[in-house]
Amino acid sequence: MRIGVISEFNPFHNGHKYLIDKAKEILLQNGGGEIISVMSEFFTQRGEAAIIDGYKRAECAVESGVDLVIALPYRASVCGSDDFSENAISILDKCKIDMLIFGSELDSNIFADIYKKEYSENIKEKVISLTKKGYSYPKIMAELFDLPKDIPNFILGYSYYKYIKKNAPHIKIKVVKREGQILNKKELTDEKFLSATAIRKNINNKNIKKYLSNQMYDYLINSNNISEEIFYKELKYKILSLGKKGLKDIYDISEGLENRIYEKNLISSSYEELIKNIKTKRYSEKRIKRILLHILLGATYKEMKQNINEVRGLCVKSEKTYLIREINKTGNIYIYQKLNKKNSKFFDFDIKVSRIYNIYYKEKDIFKRILRRA
Hints:
By secondary structure, the protein is an alpha/beta fold.
């Protein structure tokens, strides 16, 4: 049996280990197998810079029970929930997973009911109406299906469910009830598990240590942790240099949003102020963050819509290296263990992304890094 995990592990904490342990229990009940994770590397789905280097996060995941961690390319990791789900599950499907496991604030037994309602004609009209009023996707879901407002794991999990239902019905779904702190909470509280957000916002507080492995804690306090705010000057310059005409080519910019971005950039003096000035009911903070990253990195529609048939391995369990050979032999997808002049053509954009990220993180150049074994 082969179980897939879609991850960011930003950073890898005890809540993630809890999910991996549940996957290991399922494997044990089914005669064994492997856990494969596809993980966002330099920037995350919500449009933020990863606080810890991808190889280090992958290594901690493997030390905690994952057998193989694959890098999710930028064009797959920094996008809305439906595109994110499609890209990530497509990669895992090509790796021949039998089950996808993920955490959620709510049980999965209501996925089917929501799916049935969402694709009825009556609901479609309401979705269009609410979209025109400026409702974001999570708000539309809450409004139409009587859901709580702060359930980001469930909303993303529903996107997983939709993709599998339509395109990969052979993949089973296992939902683990999320425990501990709500996903986006920033404060430290005395709970079973902290959110990754709270850990990132409180790196200098020693109380976070009990929620992390010793290895991850050491990485956190000894690494040059970065955030997207550090790129503000470069971003401001990029918006000015592209101009309104150039901004039109950037992925996810439509309906005249380039005008608003350009004008608000002129009156903003910080990254947070820029987001606040651009944000509207229709354009959520997360979407604006993703768009600003696309501008910084020059991500156009052409680059973001390319198919993914080649990926990079980040870390593998020493006794499970055969997994890479097995997957590569299928011909569905190819996992590279290191970059060279020949295969780098498949990763041109991610090479650029890594080098911009490492202006501040200051890790080794991506060409000098190889698959880790743990």
